[in-house]
Design a protein that fits this description.
- The chain is α+β, with helices and mostly antiparallel strands.
- It has one domain: Roll (Nuclear Transport Factor 2, Chain: A), CATH 3.10.450.710.
- The protein contains 7 helices and 5 strands, in the order αααααβββββαα.
- Strand 2 and strand 3 form a beta hairpin.
- It starts with a helix and ends with a helix.
């Protein structure tokens, strides 16, 4: 993979994180409806279907495409687990009320971030599925985005939750999305406080909602 393009992709992932700052179920004997790789393929097929829908083309329809992609993310990503992991050991010191607020705000920011990543990078790319590894209710699905002279490795980390697989992290060329959030969030908490982090996230959330309102009216 060309270093310039690889750097640009990783830089955009990091920038999205900077600016955009469910439980394991064993109680049933019924098998999941699909495999981890099957779930990832369904997600990617669906977002590319949205991206290439003739009725959703053009800049004026970007908002509609974003809404449809966001629905796919909401249904298949465990944003609560991602929120918890993003602040690591600090989580145990956060009150239940603030955990709930933090998780909700994190979900909004992550969904916006990942939606924009999809809008900017996934359209007609070839996806190679390189296999899955399953161990004790967790799984890794390895894929590659294939472009001319480029091969971007993307690994999806999933867990079995309430008898279905959900995605809890995405690693792009070795860079974890949750890990990016975690390094930024933990640094802010250490320098200031959890409340400072949460306030900044809420401000960003409001800015995103305002922008979405403007785009909807456009």
């Amino acid at each position: 993979m060309k270093m310039g393009k690889k750097f640009n992709l990783l830089a955009i992932v990091t920038l999205l994180v900077v600016f955009v700052f469910c439980t394991l179920a064993y109680g049933t004997k019924r098998l999941p409806d699909t495999t981890p790789q099957g779930l990832v393929k369904q997600v990617l097929d669906r977002v590319m279907e949205i991206q290439n829908d003739p009725n959703l083309q053009g800049h004026n329809n970007r908002y509609k495409r974003a809404l449809e992609i966001k629905k796919v993310i909401v249904q298949n990503f465990d944003s609560y687990a991602m929120a918890r992991k993003s602040i690591g050991g600090y989580w145990r010191n956060v009150s239940p009320g603030k955990r709930k607020t933090f998780s909700r705000v994190f979900a909004d920011l992550f969904q916006d971030s990942y939606t924009r990543l999809v809008l900017n990078f996934l359209k007609k790319e070839q996806i190679d599925y390189l296999g899955e590894e399953i161990n004790n209710g967790h799984a890794i699905v390895k894929t590659a985005i294939v472009r001319s002279n480029d091969r971007i490795m993307v690994d999806y980390y999933l867990k079995l939750q309430k008898n279905r697989w959900v995605i809890e992290d995405v690693v792009i060329d070795g860079v974890s999305i949750v890990g990016n959030y975690s390094s930024i969030f933990k640094r802010e908490i250490a320098r200031n406080s959890f409340d400072s982090l949460l306030n900044k996230m809420i401000i960003q959330q409001k800015a995103i909602k305002m922008k979405l309102t403007e785009n909807k009216k456009a």
